[in-house]
Fold these 4 entries.
Entry 1:
Amino acid sequence: MSSKNIVLIGMPGSGKSTVGVLLAKELGLGFIDTDLIIQQETGRTLQAIVDGDGYQSLRSVEGRVLLALDVQRHVISTGGSAVYSDDAMAHLGRHGVVVFLDISLAAVKRRIGDHSMRGISRHPQQSLEELFEERFALYNHYGQITVRADQQTPAQVCEAVVRELTRQNLAPGMH
């Protein structure tokens, strides 16, 4: 049985947390949401960090939290900006399979609504469209597996991820 993790990356609203819990249950793995670790360690919401210290501060804290992760057999739901840290992504990739939950810009807008309330790490003047384009390239770069997640329910996305992990013989929980 593999000791690898499954690392979920993708835009806010792509379903990383929801699908992550389902995957952990399906495969008998632990579950970690790194946004929650950041909030627990800082005692502040992601939005409060962005508002008080700026988006670079949130990215810095996120990179530090990701590099400190030392777990096996977990599904790790990362924050949308995890891909800005090369070191963190290399660390996560060494210990896990990186899965990109790919959704369209229209789906992001539909799912997150007023993005200013989501603690999204972005330049103050950056539009959601610009952020989407910038991150999409990074998600594609780091994702070892890509699963379309905008036309399916979280359960269907979970099934698609398991199917792809199994097809590539990468599923940590499978015997």
Entry 2:
Amino acid sequence: MGRFDGRIAVITGAARGIGFGTATRFAEEGASVAIVDLDESAAGDAAARLPLADGVRAIGVGANVSDEASVDAAFERIVAEFGGVHVLVNNAGITRDNLLFKMTGEDWDLVMGVHLKGAFLMTRAAQKHFVEQKYGKVVNISSTSALGNRGQANYSAAKMGVQGLTRTLGIELGPFGINVNAVAPGFIATEMTDATAARLKMDVEEFRALNAEHNPVRRVGEPADIAAAVTFLASDEASYITGQTLYVDGGVSLGV
């Protein structure tokens, strides 16, 4: 028996990286999974790679999480395909890093739109179903960058906004049997961080080793580390936890 037998999990930005690692963990524990991604083809390919047990299904759904009509259409399709929804993981994200004087209004709006507006729109769509069934789990993905990071004014503001959204929705939705929490990853070895290394003209392994030196556990994180935290907060074991942000960062946020 898995913790999520009979449950349906919706995970945004799950075609790769942290999102795909999280989708994999949910599938391994018995959930049917809807992978939502801007690229529907990539979402479908990712869904086809999930380790599915008998009776468990996975689909890929194309959607722009920053667009209200696209989000509503995605949820209509997911509910029609699966018959319901129990878990939402707001993971979709992009970066448009630059120092403030070089950052454009478009850079700001794009990052805010995907991370913060996306989490708002997806959660608002999901809560209609959660409230009706008096059950639901929302896990938002924040970041240690919420604490401030040079060259990421847009990303940092969006990720701290996610934490504020999480706290407020914990208050609003708790009486309806809905838990809302967040996970704030530190450095995680993904295509996104590899792209950062390339932008800095650094070797990927060198970049990872450098980041490992800056946390107490002396290693970088893997998508599985975040997936473990997300699935705990989405499980019934965490039913007395809401409005919280769990930092999963090897201790880097301790500032030591």
Entry 3:
Amino acid sequence: MKWTSIIAIYGLFWVMAGFLVLPFGVRTNDETGTEKVEGQAESAPANFSARKIVIRATILSALMFGFFYANYFNEWITVADLDLTTYIGH
């Protein structure tokens, strides 16, 4: 696998991991007991930390890419395994 492919695939995993970890640990002002700013949405986070999101997304994406890369070389799941027409019974 080329290094450019590695970077591109890791980037895709990182973005996906970012969206997956985004809601974890976020609390609203009602949950934290802090005062809201006028016009603030009820669901707006009171303790958003981009640093935590980046760290969690980086760790999760490294794990996901590690499994992907191991599967790429060990061929645990191949394209032939994903061919559903063999299971439908044509």
Entry 4:
Amino acid sequence: MSLTIRLRALAADPDFRAGARDMASPSLGLAAWGLVTGMTMIKSGLSIPLAFAMSLLVFAGSAQLTALPLIASGAPLWVLLATAFCVNLRFVIFSAQWRHYFGHLPRWRRLMTTYFAADLNFVYFVKRYPDPVPARSQQRYFWGGVAVNWPTWQLTALVGILLADRIPTHWGIGFAGVLALLGLSYSLLTERMLWWVAVTAAAVSIATYSLPLKLNILCAIVAAGAVGWWLDSRKARNG
């Protein structure tokens, strides 16, 4: 079967379409976030080729936005790597959960999946498949989301890179992306325990905001994880 026929069959698959349809709903906020990231890369002093290469290779908006001020200030490489690592620690949690679904796949497919994995992919995937049991439809659903998420990010980041000098920063475009993520997070708070975890993360992040290297994010993750573990253990004992 030729590649064209396979792609057409995949595009017609209902699970693939469901993934693309779900990912299309927050695409406006994602586009705003990608646009701001592209602009920020240029305004931080990166050349257009380097900015575009960073967008393709890193594919992590929060890590990019966190690393750019450090690059502009000439911070040591170890500081840059440590900061990006702290910001992306949430993907350790994501991958631990995704392992239940994709752990049986060949290593090269798992590695390819990790590149395209993003926050929104994880959120919609877990909402659709709450039971961590592998199924063939899960892969098609995942790639349906990727088919919308990845091109949207790359294209809008490219637009931001090319038009960085023409789009005023005071427009506050990035706020649209923040609102989209907040709305999506709210839809996931379906249990009282999750509300406590979210409140803990928000409170700790604000309380430690003055820490350098965006360490307030790491503190929020650790505190929220500890609260979630404690509440889950307490629920298990009482249950």
